[in-house]
User: What shape does this take?
Amino acid sequence: VSGTTLYASETVDASRARQVTLLDLLDRLLAGGVVVHGKIMLAAADIDLVEVDLSLLVAAVETAARR
Amino acid sequence: MSLLLYAITENSAEPVDGAGLEQRPLRALSEDQLVAIVSEHLPSASGQTEQQLLQYEQVIESLMSRHAILPARFGSRFENEAELRAMVRARREHLASAVARVRGAVEISLSASWRESASPAAPEARSGTAYMLDRVEQHQRASALALQLQSLDEIARASSYRLLVKPSVPVLVAYLVDRDRVEDFAAAVRTLDERLDGVELICTGPWPPYSFTDGAAS
Assistant: This one.
């Protein structure tokens, strides 16, 4: 994946910057993109996402589910 | 077989090749000057995994390197070709203008948060009124912070602001930026960060233009 941390304030440690980068990707995959009339397969069940803020992920999945 | 949609693009001389999820070959379905990029899968495709999310992103990025694309939301499936073609026809004008808008551009994300996390008082200790007042104050602070980021809009083709996605992230912005201006944008974020007091910025990308597929952002 080409997306990376382009810039982070000095007070942001590397692990948090990585988490935010991963969340940015998940947020886009699950809640962004062209919304079509087809069916959306949800991606929650088998994902083992450690160290990420699950509240944001759950919000993204819920958004996808409503579409 | 059902169709998994990866992206919508425009007719071009550049062929669509390569593989999608499960190493299924990518196909290009032309419909009214637009092209839907898909792969065929069994209707009862297995559950999705983190690995498949990353593979999907890699497919999208590979397509984006050669085409102007609107990425589809992960897991967008159609029962058959006719259903997909009907969707493209019905939204042709909208999709075509959106493809033109993202041509040559990538998406960049910027999250802005307070350096010292101002966590609200414990919910049980506050009345409903206090909670609402607190929310109003948080929203006002987030709006004020968003205004401080607006100089970055000058470098971007478009931007989309989200306030208070969660309390610790008062402002989350997606920018549509010319592919060759990504470094300029990152430098501008650094310059802005040096001017802001008590704020942390994290800028990520470049991403496919997931946030600029509906033409609604400004």
Notes: Strands of chain A lie at 4-8, 39-40. The CA atoms of residues 45 and 61 of chain A lie 11 Å apart. Chain A has two helices and two strands. The helical segments of chain A are 14-31, 54-66.
